[in-house]
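Example 3.
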Amino acid sequence: MSSLERQLQRLGQELAYPREPDVASAVLARLDRRPFPWRLVAVAFAVLAVAVGAAFAVPQARTTILKWFHLRGVTIERVETLPSAAERSQAGGLGRPLSPDQAARVVGFQLALPPRTNPSRVYVLEGALASVVLRAEGRPLLLSEYRSGNVDLLKKSVGGKTVIEPVRVSGEPGLWLEGGPHTLTYFNQRGEFRQRTVKIRGNVLLWVDGELTLRLEGELTKAEALRIGRLIRSG
Amino acid sequence: MDRPLDDAELVERAKRGDLRAWETIVRGYQGLAFRTAYLLSGSAADAEEAVQDGFVKAYRALGRFRRGSPLRPWLLRIVSNEARNRRRSAGRREALALRVAAADRPGDAVPSPEAALLGGETRAQLLGAVNTLSEEHRLTIACRYFLELSEEETAAVLGVRRGTVKSRLARALARLRDELGEEDE
């Protein structure tokens, strides 16, 4: 090996790479047909959307997956047909209402919020997903946050009427989902497939901020959602 | 104490449906697979997705894995295909600019004499020269020297023949020597 080759090899040892993710649990979860081994993952909660829900709940022929979109900790699949689901009010099924301090202790992170926002209640589901109801221009918005870690915690499926568009929120990757209902399905912390599917009609902005994945839902235009999203900062 | 199982034994177990054996393989190779996918895709998110999908596809393709073949190049080929597909579908054309990690962190070991020698200016100059190479030459250098893959593995990752790796390496090294004003050795 020449001197140049040795120098290149040493240089390689000093290169900067992003933090290496641990994908083993996610790989196993996808391969294992039994209830997913989420208990092996230090993650208490997953919100799964219809791609997974549909795979369990809807005849195969109706669930052809048309396209995948990915954001860290989130996978969205476009399917031909959404499963039937109950409609959810914004604060329905969001978990226990706690004070902001109690909620931070339970989920292990401080919520990212817009400036000068002091919610009196934070809803915590399965010890991992924290949600608050905000008001912007007289309309209620639902902001949900969780620590995304290395595995996909959030999976959603959307029908053909929903537009999915990659966006940037304060330089971080995000996805904008507009139009058409989509559904969510929840896992509990023991990894049991608790299929509580709810139908959501608002538009949704998903993005990452540091170790958090955030989701803003409401009757918003893309510009409004992005403007609010940019105001929401962790820490 | 039980000895650790080698790749061949783990693969045989995984073929029989032992997911714990596959988990051991994933944990053993995911770091290298991620760095490889990151170099190819230019995006950490795409690289993570490529690694995850690659290991899922590899498990499902175990029936086609030839007994006795080396596992590492086979896995790297699958993950690299995923990474390249993502980059293509994202329409990402700009090359990933390699950079050196931040200076020593508290608690880091003292740099080796070699690392100290290759400090500051020389390192920056060398990296700058690598970043000026064409995409195919830069990736060949990155696989062979930065990831320390064999020629066979480099060929698998880049989807080319081993002879192509050899000739690209020779040309890339010559370009680097020109760029750095070094004599051929």
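Chain B has nine helices and no strands. Confidence is low (pLDDT under 50) at residues 103-111, 113-118 of chain B.
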